Amino acid sequence: MNIQQLEYIVEVAKTGFISTASENLHVSQSGISQSITSLEEELKVKIFKRSRYGAVPTEEGKEIIKKAYEILLKIQELEEEALSRHVLKGKVRVSILPSYNNIPLIKALLSFKTKYPYLHIEVDEKKMTEESIYDVKNNHADIGLILSYGDLLQSENDLTFESLLDGRMKIMTNRNSILAMSKAVSPEDILNEPLILYNGNYVKWFANQIFRSYGPMDVLLTSNNVEGIFYSVEKGLGITLAPDFVINNHRSLLNDDIAVIDFINYDPANVSVGLIRQNSPFNSPNIKKVWDFIKEELSQ
Q1: Is the model's pLDDT at 85 over the cut of 60?
Q2: What domains can you pick out in the chain, each with its CATH number?
Q3: In terms of Cα–Cα distance, which of 235, 233, 230, 234 is closest to 247?
Q4: Which site in 14, 89, 216, 277 is 20 to 30 Å from 111, CA atoms measured?
Protein backbone atom coordinates (compact mmCIF):
# COMPACT_ATOMS: atom_id res chain seq x y z
CA MET A 1 0.00 0.00 0.00
CA ASN A 2 1.23 3.50 -0.82
CA ILE A 3 -0.01 7.10 -0.80
CA GLN A 4 -0.55 7.07 -4.56
CA GLN A 5 -3.02 4.21 -4.29
CA LEU A 6 -4.95 6.11 -1.63
CA GLU A 7 -5.06 9.15 -3.90
CA TYR A 8 -6.42 7.01 -6.73
CA ILE A 9 -9.29 5.44 -4.79
CA VAL A 10 -10.32 8.80 -3.28
CA GLU A 11 -10.37 10.47 -6.71
CA VAL A 12 -12.26 7.58 -8.36
CA ALA A 13 -14.82 7.65 -5.53
CA LYS A 14 -15.18 11.40 -5.95
CA THR A 15 -15.66 11.34 -9.74
CA GLY A 16 -17.32 7.95 -10.17
CA PHE A 17 -15.17 7.13 -13.18
CA ILE A 18 -11.62 5.86 -13.63
CA SER A 19 -11.42 7.82 -16.88
CA THR A 20 -12.26 11.12 -15.16
CA ALA A 21 -9.88 10.38 -12.30
CA SER A 22 -7.22 9.66 -14.90
CA GLU A 23 -7.73 13.08 -16.48
CA ASN A 24 -7.74 14.88 -13.13
CA LEU A 25 -4.62 13.16 -11.85
CA HIS A 26 -2.79 13.06 -15.19
CA VAL A 27 -2.27 9.31 -14.90
CA SER A 28 -3.22 6.65 -17.43
CA GLN A 29 -6.47 4.76 -16.91
CA SER A 30 -4.63 1.45 -16.95
CA GLY A 31 -2.22 2.72 -14.31
CA ILE A 32 -5.06 3.68 -11.96
CA SER A 33 -6.97 0.46 -12.66
CA GLN A 34 -3.95 -1.76 -12.02
CA SER A 35 -3.05 0.16 -8.88
CA ILE A 36 -6.56 -0.25 -7.46
CA THR A 37 -6.61 -3.95 -8.34
CA SER A 38 -3.27 -4.38 -6.57
CA LEU A 39 -4.61 -2.63 -3.47
CA GLU A 40 -7.76 -4.77 -3.49
CA GLU A 41 -5.64 -7.91 -3.67
CA GLU A 42 -3.39 -6.72 -0.87
CA LEU A 43 -6.34 -5.90 1.40
CA LYS A 44 -8.40 -8.87 0.19
CA VAL A 45 -11.37 -6.52 -0.23
CA LYS A 46 -13.29 -5.41 -3.30
CA ILE A 47 -13.24 -1.61 -3.13
CA PHE A 48 -15.21 -0.80 -6.29
CA LYS A 49 -17.84 -2.44 -8.44
CA ARG A 50 -16.66 -1.54 -11.93
CA SER A 51 -18.77 -1.48 -15.08
CA ARG A 52 -19.11 0.55 -18.25
CA TYR A 53 -21.34 2.89 -16.23
CA GLY A 54 -18.58 3.80 -13.82
CA ALA A 55 -17.00 2.70 -10.55
CA VAL A 56 -19.22 2.45 -7.47
CA PRO A 57 -17.72 1.80 -3.99
CA THR A 58 -18.79 -1.39 -2.26
CA GLU A 59 -19.93 -1.22 1.37
CA GLU A 60 -16.49 -2.36 2.51
CA GLY A 61 -14.93 -0.04 -0.03
CA LYS A 62 -16.72 2.98 1.44
CA GLU A 63 -15.00 2.42 4.78
CA ILE A 64 -11.60 2.02 3.15
CA ILE A 65 -12.11 5.16 1.04
CA LYS A 66 -13.14 7.10 4.15
CA LYS A 67 -9.98 6.00 5.95
CA ALA A 68 -7.87 6.81 2.89
CA TYR A 69 -9.35 10.30 2.77
CA GLU A 70 -8.55 10.82 6.47
CA ILE A 71 -4.98 9.63 5.95
CA LEU A 72 -4.50 11.99 3.01
CA LEU A 73 -5.82 14.88 5.10
CA LYS A 74 -3.27 14.10 7.81
CA ILE A 75 -0.51 14.00 5.22
CA GLN A 76 -1.69 17.35 3.92
CA GLU A 77 -1.61 18.77 7.45
CA LEU A 78 1.99 17.60 7.85
CA GLU A 79 2.96 19.20 4.56
CA GLU A 80 1.20 22.43 5.47
CA GLU A 81 2.87 22.49 8.88
CA ALA A 82 6.23 22.28 7.18
CA LEU A 83 5.26 24.93 4.63
CA SER A 84 3.91 27.26 7.31
CA ARG A 85 7.47 27.93 8.39
CA HIS A 86 8.01 29.70 5.11
CA VAL A 87 6.50 32.94 3.89
CA LEU A 88 3.07 32.39 2.35
CA LYS A 89 2.80 33.75 -1.18
CA GLY A 90 0.21 33.57 -3.93
CA LYS A 91 -3.51 34.34 -4.06
CA VAL A 92 -6.64 33.12 -2.30
CA ARG A 93 -10.05 34.00 -3.78
CA VAL A 94 -12.97 34.54 -1.39
CA SER A 95 -16.60 34.89 -2.51
CA ILE A 96 -18.89 36.68 -0.04
CA LEU A 97 -22.48 37.88 0.27
CA PRO A 98 -23.68 41.45 0.83
CA SER A 99 -26.62 40.28 2.98
CA TYR A 100 -24.19 39.28 5.70
CA ASN A 101 -22.43 42.46 6.85
CA ASN A 102 -18.93 42.14 5.44
CA ILE A 103 -17.27 44.51 7.89
CA PRO A 104 -16.27 41.69 10.31
CA LEU A 105 -14.89 39.69 7.40
CA ILE A 106 -12.96 42.61 5.93
CA LYS A 107 -11.48 43.35 9.35
CA ALA A 108 -10.47 39.71 9.68
CA LEU A 109 -8.78 39.68 6.28
CA LEU A 110 -6.96 42.95 6.99
CA SER A 111 -5.69 41.45 10.22
CA PHE A 112 -4.58 38.38 8.29
CA LYS A 113 -2.68 40.55 5.83
CA THR A 114 -0.57 41.98 8.64
CA LYS A 115 0.63 38.46 9.40
CA TYR A 116 1.08 37.36 5.78
CA PRO A 117 1.76 40.50 3.72
CA TYR A 118 2.87 38.56 0.62
CA LEU A 119 -0.37 36.58 0.32
CA HIS A 120 -2.92 38.34 -1.90
CA ILE A 121 -6.58 37.86 -0.90
CA GLU A 122 -9.12 38.61 -3.63
CA VAL A 123 -12.64 39.26 -2.32
CA ASP A 124 -15.58 39.07 -4.74
CA GLU A 125 -19.00 40.17 -3.47
CA LYS A 126 -21.95 38.25 -4.93
CA LYS A 127 -25.67 38.98 -4.88
CA MET A 128 -26.77 35.42 -4.10
CA THR A 129 -25.50 32.39 -2.20
CA GLU A 130 -25.97 30.27 -5.33
CA GLU A 131 -23.39 32.41 -7.14
CA SER A 132 -20.79 31.74 -4.45
CA ILE A 133 -21.55 28.01 -4.56
CA TYR A 134 -21.14 28.04 -8.35
CA ASP A 135 -17.83 29.88 -8.11
CA VAL A 136 -16.38 27.46 -5.56
CA LYS A 137 -17.60 24.39 -7.48
CA ASN A 138 -16.11 25.68 -10.72
CA ASN A 139 -12.84 26.84 -9.20
CA HIS A 140 -13.56 30.54 -9.66
CA ALA A 141 -13.22 30.97 -5.88
CA ASP A 142 -11.33 29.02 -3.23
CA ILE A 143 -13.63 29.85 -0.29
CA GLY A 144 -17.24 30.98 -0.11
CA LEU A 145 -19.07 32.69 2.74
CA ILE A 146 -22.72 31.71 2.27
CA LEU A 147 -26.14 31.41 3.83
CA SER A 148 -27.27 27.78 4.07
CA TYR A 149 -30.98 27.01 4.34
CA GLY A 150 -33.44 24.24 3.51
CA ASP A 151 -31.96 21.59 1.22
CA LEU A 152 -29.69 24.06 -0.60
CA LEU A 153 -26.52 21.99 -0.07
CA GLN A 154 -28.14 18.57 0.06
CA SER A 155 -26.93 17.51 -3.39
CA GLU A 156 -23.56 19.30 -3.22
CA ASN A 157 -21.49 16.23 -2.39
CA ASP A 158 -18.31 17.76 -3.77
CA LEU A 159 -18.38 20.67 -1.31
CA THR A 160 -17.48 20.94 2.36
CA PHE A 161 -19.66 23.27 4.45
CA GLU A 162 -18.81 24.40 7.96
CA SER A 163 -21.42 26.39 9.87
CA LEU A 164 -20.13 29.41 11.77
CA LEU A 165 -23.37 30.90 13.04
CA ASP A 166 -26.96 29.68 13.31
CA GLY A 167 -29.75 32.22 13.15
CA ARG A 168 -33.41 32.69 13.89
CA MET A 169 -35.79 34.90 11.95
CA LYS A 170 -36.83 38.21 13.51
CA ILE A 171 -39.47 40.83 12.69
CA MET A 172 -38.59 44.53 12.58
CA THR A 173 -41.39 47.05 12.83
CA ASN A 174 -41.99 50.67 13.81
CA ARG A 175 -41.92 51.14 17.58
CA ASN A 176 -45.45 52.61 17.59
CA SER A 177 -47.08 49.75 15.65
CA ILE A 178 -49.48 47.27 17.24
CA LEU A 179 -47.00 44.45 16.55
CA ALA A 180 -44.37 46.22 18.68
CA MET A 181 -46.54 45.63 21.75
CA SER A 182 -45.91 41.88 21.50
CA LYS A 183 -42.80 40.02 22.62
CA ALA A 184 -43.25 37.54 19.76
CA VAL A 185 -45.40 37.24 16.65
CA SER A 186 -46.38 34.29 14.45
CA PRO A 187 -47.09 34.15 10.68
CA GLU A 188 -50.82 34.75 11.25
CA ASP A 189 -50.02 38.06 12.95
CA ILE A 190 -48.31 39.55 9.89
CA LEU A 191 -50.60 38.43 7.07
CA ASN A 192 -52.09 41.91 6.66
CA GLU A 193 -48.86 43.82 7.25
CA PRO A 194 -47.03 45.40 4.28
CA LEU A 195 -43.70 43.59 3.88
CA ILE A 196 -40.41 45.19 2.90
CA LEU A 197 -38.07 42.35 2.00
CA TYR A 198 -34.39 42.09 1.28
CA ASN A 199 -34.02 40.95 -2.35
CA GLY A 200 -32.03 37.83 -1.56
CA ASN A 201 -32.80 34.23 -2.37
CA TYR A 202 -32.97 33.13 1.26
CA VAL A 203 -35.48 35.79 2.30
CA LYS A 204 -37.61 35.16 -0.81
CA TRP A 205 -37.46 31.40 -0.21
CA PHE A 206 -38.46 31.86 3.42
CA ALA A 207 -41.34 34.18 2.53
CA ASN A 208 -42.57 31.67 -0.07
CA GLN A 209 -42.69 28.94 2.60
CA ILE A 210 -44.92 31.20 4.69
CA PHE A 211 -47.08 32.04 1.66
CA ARG A 212 -47.65 28.36 0.91
CA SER A 213 -48.81 27.66 4.46
CA TYR A 214 -50.81 30.79 5.25
CA GLY A 215 -51.73 32.38 1.95
CA PRO A 216 -50.53 35.47 0.05
CA MET A 217 -49.01 38.39 1.93
CA ASP A 218 -48.71 42.07 1.09
CA VAL A 219 -45.17 42.56 -0.30
CA LEU A 220 -44.78 46.31 -0.58
CA LEU A 221 -41.13 46.40 -1.67
CA THR A 222 -38.08 44.23 -2.29
CA SER A 223 -34.68 45.87 -2.22
CA ASN A 224 -30.94 45.15 -1.99
CA ASN A 225 -30.45 48.38 -0.03
CA VAL A 226 -30.28 47.37 3.65
CA GLU A 227 -30.11 50.98 4.81
CA GLY A 228 -33.22 51.79 2.78
CA ILE A 229 -35.10 48.83 4.29
CA PHE A 230 -34.26 49.93 7.84
CA TYR A 231 -35.31 53.50 7.01
CA SER A 232 -38.66 52.34 5.59
CA VAL A 233 -39.35 50.31 8.74
CA GLU A 234 -38.35 53.28 10.91
CA LYS A 235 -40.88 55.48 9.09
CA GLY A 236 -43.65 52.92 9.56
CA LEU A 237 -44.04 52.07 5.86
CA GLY A 238 -44.00 48.34 6.58
CA ILE A 239 -42.26 45.51 8.44
CA THR A 240 -39.32 43.37 7.43
CA LEU A 241 -38.00 39.86 8.08
CA ALA A 242 -34.32 39.15 8.72
CA PRO A 243 -32.16 36.58 10.53
CA ASP A 244 -30.91 37.80 13.90
CA PHE A 245 -27.24 37.73 12.86
CA VAL A 246 -27.97 40.09 9.96
CA ILE A 247 -29.73 42.52 12.31
CA ASN A 248 -26.89 42.28 14.84
CA ASN A 249 -24.37 43.13 12.15
CA HIS A 250 -26.33 46.24 11.20
CA ARG A 251 -26.80 47.60 14.71
CA SER A 252 -25.63 51.03 13.55
CA LEU A 253 -28.84 51.31 11.49
CA LEU A 254 -31.13 50.56 14.43
CA ASN A 255 -32.61 53.33 16.55
CA ASP A 256 -35.38 53.83 19.12
CA ASP A 257 -38.04 53.97 16.37
CA ILE A 258 -37.42 50.33 15.34
CA ALA A 259 -38.58 47.35 17.39
CA VAL A 260 -37.05 43.88 16.91
CA ILE A 261 -39.48 41.08 17.76
CA ASP A 262 -39.12 37.30 17.91
CA PHE A 263 -40.82 35.43 15.05
CA ILE A 264 -42.29 32.11 16.22
CA ASN A 265 -44.38 29.13 15.09
CA TYR A 266 -42.94 28.82 11.62
CA ASP A 267 -41.12 26.11 9.72
CA PRO A 268 -38.36 25.78 8.60
CA ALA A 269 -36.69 27.45 11.55
CA ASN A 270 -33.03 28.08 10.97
CA VAL A 271 -30.49 29.53 8.58
CA SER A 272 -26.72 29.26 8.94
CA VAL A 273 -23.80 31.43 7.94
CA GLY A 274 -20.87 29.25 6.97
CA LEU A 275 -17.86 28.59 4.79
CA ILE A 276 -17.68 26.30 1.76
CA ARG A 277 -14.76 24.88 -0.17
CA GLN A 278 -14.15 21.96 -2.47
CA ASN A 279 -13.88 18.54 -0.83
CA SER A 280 -10.43 17.84 -2.26
CA PRO A 281 -7.87 17.14 0.48
CA PHE A 282 -5.22 18.82 -1.64
CA ASN A 283 -6.25 22.46 -1.23
CA SER A 284 -3.19 24.67 -0.91
CA PRO A 285 -1.84 25.58 2.54
CA ASN A 286 -2.75 29.16 1.70
CA ILE A 287 -6.44 28.26 1.45
CA LYS A 288 -6.38 26.36 4.73
CA LYS A 289 -4.69 29.27 6.49
CA VAL A 290 -7.32 31.73 5.25
CA TRP A 291 -10.16 29.27 5.97
CA ASP A 292 -9.03 28.70 9.56
CA PHE A 293 -8.45 32.40 10.12
CA ILE A 294 -11.90 33.46 8.86
CA LYS A 295 -13.54 30.68 10.87
CA GLU A 296 -11.80 31.79 14.06
CA GLU A 297 -12.53 35.49 13.54
CA LEU A 298 -16.21 35.18 12.59
CA SER A 299 -17.00 32.58 15.27
CA GLN A 300 -15.99 34.93 18.07
Answers
A1: no
A2: 3-83 (1.10.10.10), 90-165+272-298 (3.40.190.10), 167-269 (3.40.190.290)
A3: 230
A4: 277
